Amino acid sequence: QVQLVESGGGLVQAGGSLRLSCTASGRTFSSYAMGWFRQAPGKEREFVVGISRSSISTYYADSVKGRFTISRDNAKNTVYLQMNSLKPEDTAVYYCAAQQTTGWVIPRSTYSYDYWGQGTQVTVSS
Predict the structure, then answer these.
(1) Measuring CA to CA, how many Å separate 47 from each of 69, 72, 106, 107, 126?
(2) What is the distance between the alpha carbons of residues 81 and 35, in angstroms, rounded to a whole number?
(3) Cα–Cα distance between 37 and 76 in angstroms, integer?
């Protein structure tokens, strides 16, 4: 069982930056591909970005490419999401997710992930 705890959300003006963190319990963090998803009111949860177990590969949604950066520190059991040039349309609850895997493919479907955090609110004002 893995528990994920997100932090770092908040209110920011358009053009600003935030860094989200997601810390996992347990000793096998490096066995998990990690992803960030977001869900805006009235919308489905959508994939934002993912990173493979050893950071060899990443995959970004087109909507955040060039503005968001994912990274992970396996020694700290933590994955980060640096969000720059934020836009009002980035407003959502952001969730981190973990998929136990031996491969390098980064899943983009919510159904592929085994564990989820409770979410952290990001609000971007115009």
Answers:
(1) 14, 17, 11, 9, 23
(2) 10
(3) 21
Specify whether the CB–CB gap between 47 and 35 falls below 8 A. yes
The whole-angstrom separation of Cα 67 and Cα 53 is 22
What is the rounded average pLDDT of the residues 20-49? 95
Structure token pair of residue 19? 């860094």
Average pLDDT, the chain: 96
| Alpha carbon distance 37, 56 (integer Å) | 20
Task: Indicate if the alpha-carbon torsion angle 114, 117, 118, 120 is positive or negative.
Answer: negative
Cα 93 from Cα 91, distance rounded (Å): 7
Position 64 scores a pLDDT of: 98
Which residues lie across from 69 on neighbouring strands? 82
Name the band, by pLDDT with cuts 50, 70 and 90, for residue 53. very high
- CA 33-36-40 angle, to 5 degrees, is 155
Taking the C-alpha atoms of residue 76 and residue 94, their distance in angstroms, rounded to an integer, is 20
